[in-house]
C-alpha cells in the first residue's frame, strides 16, 4: 500500500492458467465436488454439533424425555426389535458419533437409500429363538418368543384348546369334582377384604412377593412325613418333555411350584417295582415322581410386569410333561392281557397367576399324539368371593392328588406287578428241563453203573 492506494501484485503464470475458462466437463466435475463438500460439511454439523442456546437445550431435553417415554411402545410395535435392542437389554446411548464407518449403499426402486443387511437379521433371530435353545440371541427366553406357541408347542402336538369346546366326559367329571364345597373352614369374606397384604399385591408387587404371599395362604408345603411332595423352581427332567422329534423344541419346564409324590412315603409297597421301571417316573433331581400340579407366578407392578401369556406357555409345556409321565404308566398297562386292568387318570392341573389374576388350566392326552390344555376358570384375586373360590379349587386339587389319584396309581402298579408274576409263572411252566437237572440225572446214572456187580475171571 502506497499513500493509501493498493498496488496490484503481478500474478503468476500458474494462477493465470488456473483462472482460464474451463471446459464444460471440468465445470461439471467442479460443481459435483462443491456439492460433495457441502454435503460433508452438512454431516459434520451432526458429527460435531455446536453448543446450542439455553432455550435449545431445554427443547432438546424435552424431546429426549418424550422419546424415552415411547421406548416401551417401540419395543412392542417394532417388527424386528433385534436391530434396536442390545443383547444385554441396555439402552443404546444417544451421544452422536464423531465419525461413522464408510458403508456402501444401494437404492431401491423409488430411489431411497437402503443400508446393507446386518449379519444377524431379524428373521434369523426369530428362527433361532424358535429352536431348541432356551434363550435366543436377543436374550429373550424361548417361552417369550411370539411364535413359541404356534410353532414349538404345536410342532410337538401341544395345543391350547378353546374353553368353549366341550370337554371329554372323563375330564369334565374331574373338573366337576374340583367345584365341590369343602368341609374345612377357610377365610371369611370380611377377612379377605381386610387383608392389607392382598391389597398391596393389587397395587404392585415383585414376583417373589406374589409367591411368598400365596405360599402362606393358598398353597400347602410338601410334608416330608406325608405322601405329597412339592419342588420349587427346579428344572424338570428332559425325558419328561413331550417330543415328536421336531427341530423345534419345547423349552425345559422350570415350574415355580410342582406337586407330586414322595417315593418312600407314597409307595412303600412298590419301591422295588419303581426301581425296575426306571427313571421314567421321576420328574426332577429331588426325586419327585408322578407330578400332577404346576404353578407359575408373575410380577405385576413397577418392579417389573410379568406376562400371563408367557406363564400360560410355561403351563402348556410343564403340564404336558406331567401328563406324559403318567401316560408312560398307562402305556405299560395297555400291554397287559387282563381285562381287569384300567388306565390311570393322567390329567394334570396348572395355574398361571399374578397378584391380581389367576388362570386355572387342565391338561390331558386327547389321543395317541395330541396333548390338550384348556382354561377351567379365571379368578380376580382382589375380589373376596373370587379369592375364596380360588382357594377352594386349589385345595380340592391337592386333596385329589393325595387321595383319589394316588390310590389309582397304586392300583395300577399292583396290576402291573400281578401281570408280571403271571407271565413269569407261565414262562416257567413252558420251560424244558434245565441243563442242571439233565446233568444231575447223568451223574446218577454213572453212579448206579459203577456200584453194580462186576463179572470176572477169578473163580474157576
Automatic annotation (TrEMBL):
Coiled coil: none annotated. Residues 1-35, 74-146, 417-460 are annotated as: Disordered. It comes from Fusarium piperis. Residues 207-412 form the DUF7924 domain. It comes from the Eukaryota. Pfam families: DUF7924. InterPro entries: DUF7924. This is DUF7924 domain-containing protein. Residues 120-138, 437-452 have a biased composition (Polar residues).
